[in-house]
Amino acid sequence: MPEVKNSAVSSSYKNKEAILLAVDCIIFGFDHEGLKLLIFKREFEPLAGHWSLIGSFVNKNEDVEDAAYKVLKETTGLESLFVEQLHAFGRINRDKGDRVVSIAYWSLIKLNEENRNLNVANHEAHWVDFKEVPELILDHNEMVAMALTTLRERARFRPIGFELLPDKFTLPQLLNLYEAIYQTKFDDRNFRRKILKTGLLIKLNEKDKSTSKRGALLYKFDYQQYDKLSKDGYLFEL
Amino acid sequence: MPEVKNSAVSSSYKNKEAILLAVDCIIFGFDHEGLKLLIFKREFEPLAGHWSLIGSFVNKNEDVEDAAYKVLKETTGLESLFVEQLHAFGRINRDKGDRVVSIAYWSLIKLNEENRNLNVANHEAHWVDFKEVPELILDHNEMVAMALTTLRERARFRPIGFELLPDKFTLPQLLNLYEAIYQTKFDDRNFRRKILKTGLLIKLNEKDKSTSKRGALLYKFDYQQYDKLSKDGYLFEL
DNA sequence: ATATTAAACGTCATATTGACGATAAATGAA
DNA sequence: TTCATTTATCGTCAATATGACGTTTAATAT
Q1: Fewest CB atoms less than 10 Å from the CB: which of A70, A92, B68, B162?
Q2: How far is the alpha carbon of B215 from chain A, nearest alpha carbon, in Å?
Q3: Helices (DSSP H) in chain B: which residue ranges?
Q4: What is the mean pLDDT of residues B185-209?
């Protein structure tokens, strides 16, 4: 096999330089106040004490994805949540400490009494309004911006919003969520029509009276129906 | 700063294991025969001689993205082409040779007489029909499958098809391209209506007579108009 | 001249959208 | 117990978009 000269294309594993690999997690949550982002105080130098996404180095004997799941499980306490790889960030000098390539994952969690509380698992964690994210270390603000763009893209064509709501939710809640995600107002009547037409919501015989005298009907997401429609190449559109 | 015990979350750069990092490129092209994929004969062990995507290890002193661009430039001879990061593939044993995490990039190129020819830059390269991709090494078939899914997603809502056509193209050509991408037939009259309604095509006063007696009008893509519409949050939909 | 062929144009019934108006179900005040 | 208030829910309609399909045009070759 001829060795190719002056080629960008690799021709063996020899003399290749290994690089530190990390995962960083963008964690979105939603409550009555709006869309939130979970950020942390960095616990080691350089930049200790600064706001940061939560992350971890990837060990040589673990899958990259597992590393992300481990971080998410530890910081949210949740086993099952929506997680998707966002992007690998690989600029040479993105990390001042050493050459580190970071693979970012974004996730959506259903807020409840436990994971709403801060200082998760010994880490100083804070939920912040996604519109008021402070300066984060390294390229973490860039990661957040990209995650938000991706969230908006995904939520437009996939019924992903449900991942941010409790299992039972009302249509006004769902509307608020979409309005928070896109930072715009939707006509409630048209929104209701579109969302119900998908056939992905199951109407329950319960009402939530926490926000109005009249109370709003609770719905749950029909995951079975969604799976069925997805297989047929279904395309949800908001 | 307290060291967190038994935590997935990293607390310093010390004792972290570096990992080999690679880029692999999924290169799509299109001609009268259909949508093509550029594959290569692997030039080093293990698996030398097997079909593979083209790739390269990432040096410690280069951006990940630059590594991908370098490979693409070398194998296609093109400076400017559509490139987008696809996904980082990070399973522990995905590479038999060593622990290698690969960041895949997908790209679209305008085929011409030069880059259509095989054995690009000393590498044994072949264009293959995307429906008949042979068995590739490692997880490269998985990468191709994901790239195809992403291409279809992108082409649905972004006028990306033009990246695969020459600067001047006819509507029947464009239709053929979309039909190849989605492996389905579109009504030519409705397709024409939709595509022209976007206002992104500039009609030229030239005809291409290579495929019919009558000849088809040539168009070019209006990149300026696209930029303008994109900024206003425009959403192209096929 | 005329048959042939791909390209281009046109029509229409139906479905979807966006912009509203109107009603309903609860509460608490008069 | 009536009534005003508030949020939730249902309904309407004109404008637009869609899918399905028929027709004409511009060239070439016979």
Answers
A1: A92
A2: 36
A3: 64-76, 113-116, 140-157, 171-182, 188-197, 223-231
A4: 96
